[in-house]
Amino acid sequence: MCHVRKSHLFGGICLITCFILSFNFYWPRRYQLTRSGSPPICGVRVSHDTITPLKGQRTFIISAYKDNREGNIIRILGIVHHQKVKELYCYFCCNSNTNVYPTRAGIDIHQDRFGFPYGLADIICTEPPDCRAEFVSVHWSPSEVVHNLTSFRIRNRDPGQFTANFTVCFSTMFGNYSNVLQFIQTIEMYKILGAQKVTVYLNNCSRQMEEVLQYYTEEGTVEVIPWHIQRYLKPSKRWRYPSDGTEIGYYGQISALNDCIYRNMYSSKFVVLNDQDEIILPFKHRTWDTMMESLQRENPKVGIFLFENHIFPQTVVSNGTFTDTSSWNRVPGSNLLQYIHREPDRPNYFNARKMILDPRAVIQTSVHSTLKQYKNSKYVPLETALVYHCRGPLQRNLNRSSLIKDDNIWRYNESLIRNVNGMLNHFLT
Ligand SMILES: *[C@@H]1O[C@H](CO)[C@@H](O)[C@H](O)[C@H]1NC(C)=O
Ligand SMILES: *[C@@H]1O[C@H](CO)[C@@H](O)[C@H](O)[C@H]1NC(C)=O
Ligand SMILES: *[C@@H]1O[C@H](CO)[C@@H](O)[C@H](O)[C@H]1NC(C)=O
Ligand SMILES: *[C@@H]1O[C@H](CO)[C@@H](O)[C@H](O)[C@H]1NC(C)=O
Ligand SMILES: *[C@@H]1O[C@H](CO)[C@@H](O)[C@H](O)[C@H]1NC(C)=O
Ligand SMILES: *[C@@H]1O[C@H](CO)[C@@H](O)[C@H](O)[C@H]1NC(C)=O
Ligand SMILES: *[C@@H]1O[C@H](CO)[C@@H](O)[C@H](O)[C@H]1NC(C)=O
């Protein structure tokens, strides 16, 4: 089982370590690759991409994270073929830069793959004792020459301080996304509600949206993560596999959401998982800060809060009497202040939920709930908040009087109009 020879590094602890690791991992051999004094062998070819293919291995690495919650665990997020990837090894470059130990990885494919051949996997390796690797490489074979491999910087090594109370994660933006006005209003609403940051996994958007993203990036609100998944896999626009030869669901939404949680694990107190056409709107409170403070006080064991999704169809328009919105006509896209009617829930139908969560309480997430976590989940009742989801109708045959009037968004009209106008003043001139 354990083929590690005695060495100055591991001598005394080999037995214990092998005993612990033999449950899931083992070191197949030990590789002495360079003598000290040679140029550093680690991190020679470091990937700076968000999706990096391992050639011929049906594996695409997203990011490597130290998981401080689980001892010496390095969790590498990667997209893998669910049947063909059975064996992977992590190559750590330990601090001396002289020895590299391939360790066998555990491969935990996330349960929510929705029938597609490719899905997100946690590639889990135990870092060798006394090793504080800055980089890690991955390969299916345990006998590679490490400097031939691409390495990935291990993030989250040093948990810093919060730089945000709330970070919103958008899963993939794709298909020439061009709803500029709604996007600007949505970002300004998040800021009013208490967000400091929005992480956008960008596949494709219109020219003008690129400029908007650039504006918010310079402002410090938006972080754009390039997400060119179609270079490597055939992405589907559907979430469930339609047996049409595509390879991964919804442009890799699940992968983006999980990466966003780990990326923001120590920089953000809360992470908000919703799409770009959704806003979690409180009823009882004015901001997410006060709402979450109250929800956490009432539910100390809960780390994942789920909010009901409600469709505000863009086919039913209500013009409020708001002044100062004339410049909005010059911006393409929908105007949120016109949509104040929501569809009623359908009985016997899955009513989706979206989440505000403590990222440190989550191990794996899906879209409408988490899959593995350290803390409990709670459904937040409709009296407290809902997900304002402004899009085309799901129940097309309903007329205005069959919808529920809900003008909660208008509570924010003054600050929203002021802030959108402030942004447009800079942006349009
Ligand atoms: C490493 O790469 C070199 C050239 O890039 C190649 O000649 C060599 O065979 C590779 N070694 C292994 C073990 O893959
Ligand atoms: C988080 O919220 C608190 C209170 O609402 C505020 O004082 C603090 O500045 C916020 N933190 C950040 C990083 O914006
Ligand atoms: C988005 O896709 C269109 C059409 O394929 C292309 O012309 C455009 O350059 C792409 N934009 C980005 C930002 O990739
Ligand atoms: C993208 O959207 C913009 C705005 O709606 C449109 O002008 C442009 O032609 C679209 N581009 C493509 C490649 O579809
Ligand atoms: C709302 O205003 C738009 C023009 O901005 C107009 O086309 C539409 O008919 C108005 N709808 C209602 C219900 O007043
Ligand atoms: C709206 O739909 C309801 C139920 O389908 C119907 O009774 C009502 O007459 C409709 N109202 C209008 C204005 O079409
Ligand atoms: C706009 O907001 C103000 C307070 O901020 C409120 O008094 C007013 O009723 C709101 N307007 C509408 C149409 O709801």
TrEMBL record:
EC id: 2.4.1.-
Positions of transmembrane segments: 7-27
Main localization of the protein described in the UniProt heading: membrane
GO cellular component term, pick one: cytoplasm
Subcellular location: Membrane
Domain of life per record: Eukaryota
Keywords: Glycosyltransferase, Membrane, Transferase, Transmembrane, Transmembrane helix
GO molecular function: glycosyltransferase activity
Annotated membrane topology: Single-pass membrane protein
Keyword Membrane in annotation: yes
Ion transport listed as a keyword: no
Family of the protein in this entry: Belongs to the glycosyltransferase 92 family.
Name this protein carries in UniProt: Glycosyltransferase family 92 protein
Gene expressing this chain: LOC100495094
